[in-house]
C-alpha cells in the first residue's frame, strides 16, 4: 500500500459564513486547503479537531469532502446544506417563524466497538477515499490551470502578431521616408545647379544687351 494511504484521518470543524463545515483529513493543513482558507483558522481559534461521534462518522463516510450544515445548528453534516431559515435582517421586516420539526427519534445506543481488524480496514478505506478525493480536486485544478495557460498563450500570440505588424509598418514607413528624403536632396541639388546655370546665362545676355546699346 502506498505510504500516503497509511495516514490516519482526523475530523476537523470550523464555521465559515452561514455554515459549519467539517472534513476528514490527515492534517490541519489539508483541512485548510479543502476549505479554501487563506489564513490559519486553527491559530485564530475558529477551527478545531472534533471527536463528536456523529460528525466523525459523517466525515469518515466521505473523507476529503467538505460537509456543511447551517451555522449554529445541531443538524447532520451533508454535502448540500440549506441556508439557515432565520436570517431576516434587522429592520427589514418581521422575522420568519421557525418551522416546526418533527420530533427527533431517540438516538440509538452506540454500537459495540468492532474488532481492531475492522477498525484498521475502515481506516484504510477512509484514507483511500480521501486520496481519491484529493486526486479529483488536483485534476480539476490542473484542468483549470491548463485552460488559463491556453488563454494566456492565445493572448500572447495575438499581442506578438500585432506587435510584428506594427514593426513591419514602421520599417516600411522609415524606408519610404528615407527614399523621399533622398529624392528631395536630389531635387535641391538640381535646383541649385539650375540656378547657377541661369545666373551665368543671365549675366552673359545682360552684357550683350549693354553692348548693343552703346
Helical percentage: 40-55%
Give the low-pLDDT segments: 1-6, 88-103
Rg over CA atoms: 42 Å
Overall pLDDT: 80
Shape: rod-shaped
Task: Give the neighbour order of strands across the main sheet.
Answer: 3-1-2-4
Main β-sheet description:
4 strands, antiparallel
Total count of strands? 4
Derived from helix and strand composition plus strand pairing, the structural class reads: alpha+beta
Q: Beta-strand level of the residues, as a percent range?
A: 5-15%
Notes on the protein architecture:
With 214 residues, the protein is α+β, with helices and mostly antiparallel strands. Helix content is 54%, strand content 10%. It has helices at residues 28-35, 53-61, 116-213; strands at 10-16, 19-25, 47-49, 67-70. The chain has a four-stranded antiparallel beta sheet with strand order 3-1-2-4. A hairpin with a 2-residue loop joins strand 1 (10-16) and strand 2. The longest helix is centred in the last third of the chain and has 98 residues, at 116-213. It is rod-shaped and about 140 Å long. The N and C termini lie far apart (130 Å).
